[in-house]
Amino acid sequence: MSNWLDEMFAPQKPVIAMLHLTALPGDPGFDSRTGLTAVIERAKEELDALQGGGVDGIMISNEFSLPYLTETEPITAITMARIIGQLLPDIQVPFGVNVLWDGRASIDLAVATGAKFVREIFTGVYASDFGLWNTNIGEVARHRARIGGSDVKLFFNIVPESATYLSGRDLASIAQTTVFATLPDALCVSGLTAGAPTDSQSLALVKAAAGTVPVFVNTGVRAHNVAEQLSVADGAIVGTYFKKDGVFENRVEKSRVEELMSEARAFRSTLH
């Protein structure tokens, strides 16, 4: 197992919680009447609930910037930097960022805010709900080095939501060549959309092909299956389940966080 994962997170097989920001300036759903004040207040409330419920890490994303751009407008990362700046005094666990769906902007935001990791689609060409979607990991990796972000860990989502890989290659081959040729720090395996279950067979295939690169289950983790998922994966990223009634649009509910984290800790106690 890669040493960086053990150095960054205290427990084995960490659970990273998504902190979904509501729509931001420039997004169709942004509420200009309540403005950024409401966005920041909700973010602070949900950060408190997630950390109070015992999560091991936080990933801050512009999840409600629907429909997403594959090259974001500058206002998005700029606004996220302001919000994170106001959250920083209260963040007690390692945190990462995700500017959907823009790897370069995610790295810029991480360097500006001190985030430890980013998650994005860094490789592949896709037919997606957002149009033809291309990437350039060589350029992005060099950009990370140029701006002083070499310590920012890159989580590669190799099964992107709302998109299909154009090459038609099998998942194990994609994982093998991604690890060999593009130097990811971790791989993420997802279902079709946020909150959708991740296929256990797909997760196992990627884990077998990834070698020493950590593999995270990226969607669909719930209290009843977190032990099963963590028996294969090296960690989990959880968003939708932590919300009231498990509904994507709702606010985080501390009791649901506590429920899942209790199951995760019980499973981790069996590893020693």
Structural features, described:
- This is BtpA/SgcQ family protein.
- Belongs to the BtpA family.
- The chain has 272 residues and is an alpha/beta fold.
- The chain has one domain: TIM Barrel (Alpha-Beta Barrel).
- 37% of the residues lie in helices and 16% in strands.
- It has 9 helices and 11 strands.
- The protein has helices at 3-8, 35-52, 74-87, 103-113, 137-146, 171-182, 200-209, 226-230, 254-268, and strands spanning 15-20, 57-61, 95-98, 117-120, 126-128, 131-133, 153-157, 163-165, 186-189, 215-217, 235-238.
- An 8-stranded parallel β-barrel has the order 1-2-3-4-7-9-10-11. A 3-stranded antiparallel beta sheet has the order 6-5-8, with no helix packed on it.
- Helix 3 (74-87) links the parallel strand 2 (57-61) and strand 3 (95-98).
- The two termini are 16 Å apart.
Largest sheet: 8 strands, parallel, barrel
Tally of DSSP β-strands: 11
- What is the distance, rounded to the nearest whole angstrom, between the alpha carbons of the first and last residues? 16 Å
Measured by DSSP, the beta-strand proportion falls in 15-25%
CATH superfamily, by name, is FMN-linked oxidoreductases
List SSEs in N-to-C order.
HEHEHEHEEEHEEHEHEHEH
Please summarize what this structure is.
Belongs to the BtpA family. This protein has helices at residues 3-8, 35-52, 74-87, 103-113, 137-146, 171-182, 200-209, 226-230, 254-268, and strands at 15-20, 57-61, 95-98, 117-120, 126-128, 131-133, 153-157, 163-165, 186-189, 215-217, 235-238.
